[in-house]
Amino acid sequence: MADFVIGTRGSGLALWQAHAVADALRAQDPAREVDVRVIKTTGDRILDVPLSKIGDKGLFTKEIEAQLLAGEIDMCVHSMKDVPSALPEGCVLAAMLPRADARDALVCGPRLDQVECLADVPEGARIGTGSLRRAAQLRARYPQLVPSEIRGNLDTRLAKAEGADYEGAVLAVSGIVRMGWEDRIRAYIPVEDMIPAVGQGAVGIEARIDDERTLAALAEISHAPTMACVNAERIILSRLEGGCQVPLGAYIRWEGPADEQTLVLDAFVASLDGSEMARVHLERVGAAGQGDPAEVAEMALEALCEQGACEIMGRVKASVGL
Ligand SMILES: NCc1[nH]cc(CCC(=O)O)c1CC(=O)O
């Protein structure tokens, strides 16, 4: 019997993340036995429908959480981006690994071999993305591009992006790098052009709320600044009731040297075509780790609402029948 059993999806990215957690747990105590168990989710089974149309929160997490609650596994590892704002009763987000690069990246096929940034991409180019967030921001900022639905695991999407039906695609930097394909990144898209999804680049670990043994082990490996920032982004997500059905992004981080760090927030909500957008950028200067991410999240919510975020959300939801 292993000391800890980790449940995860079976995609290459999910397995990389689960093994990163297993390695972190073993690094604390080399005698520890940690197993990784693959669990198939609804999101893995439904491959032919756009994610934004399935309309079910927790598509990639529900089956794994069921096994957690049943005591079959001790923890589940997720991309924080895929974790809905409300967890099932009895589950808690116990830890996060240090966040990787949260930005999105442009990958291009052979027809765009001269392109070095989004502005270079020629009129009419089909840019694959399954995300309303990416599509709305592309439409708002680069109206010459044609965002085109793309689905599948990261490896499938990368292959499609370089194939006949697309000129390129937008994918998360963190995922591409974890798969070892950094050399396929044509451009790192700046946050000013594309605000990342809530939790993008962060790996989260969920456990049972009463499992003190597992919670104690996870506390040893958790990265507090990542947890504080991602949890604050999730406040924005839950208060605006945004799931995968609404174009929404929020990214909070500390920037700069340790003695003068700035807590920086970017967040937006938009209509599907990107023509209406509420958007904020906030900065708080202080010493290392100073400033409260949850507090800037509240300020951002206020500013977004003043710009009509709630009305935009309401219209988007009505238009997709929510
Ligand atoms: N929705 C799929 C998904 N979930 C997490 C990541 C990337 C890894 C991360 O956010 O850390 C991806 C792929 C992508 O968006 O390109």
Give an account of the 3D structure:
- The chain has helices at 12-28, 42-45, 51-54, 62-69, 132-141, 154-161, 173-178, 212-221, 224-239, 293-306, 309-319, and strands at 4-8, 34-38, 75-79, 91-96, 104-108, 126-128, 146-148, 168-172, 187-188, 203-208, 248-255, 261-270, 277-286.
- It has three domains: 4-97 and 202-222, Periplasmic binding protein-like II (D-Maltodextrin-Binding Protein, domain 2, 3-Layer(aba) Sandwich); 104-188, Periplasmic binding protein-like II (D-Maltodextrin-Binding Protein, domain 2, 3-Layer(aba) Sandwich), CATH 3.40.190; 235-317, Porphobilinogen deaminase, C-terminal domain (Double Stranded RNA Binding Domain), CATH 3.30.160.40.
- It has eleven helices and 13 strands.
- The chain starts with a strand and ends with a helix.
- A five-stranded mixed beta sheet has the order 2-1-3-10-4, with helices on both faces. The protein has a five-stranded mixed beta sheet with strand order 7-6-8-5-9, sandwiched between helices. A three-stranded antiparallel beta sheet has the order 11-12-13.
- With 322 residues, the protein is an alpha/beta fold.
- α1 packs across α8 (212-221) and α9 (224-239) packs parallel to α10 (293-306).
- It is 34% helix and 23% strand.
- Bound molecules: ligand PBG.
- The ligand NCc1[nH]cc(CCC(=O)O)c1CC(=O)O binds next to β8 and α7.
